[in-house]
Automatic annotation (TrEMBL):
Source superkingdom: Eukaryota
Organism from which the protein derives: Arundo donax
Name under which the protein is recorded: Uncharacterized protein
Length: 26
């Protein structure tokens, strides 16, 4: 139960982090 919520939270956070890393690479 906790792990499932954590996974959902990570997927919500991963998208802006991926965008930020793309911006940083440029």
């Amino acid at each position: 139960m906790f792990q499932n919520g954590l996974k959902q939270d990570m997927s919500r956070c991963a998208f802006p982090i991926a965008i930020a890393s793309n911006v940083n690479q440029r």
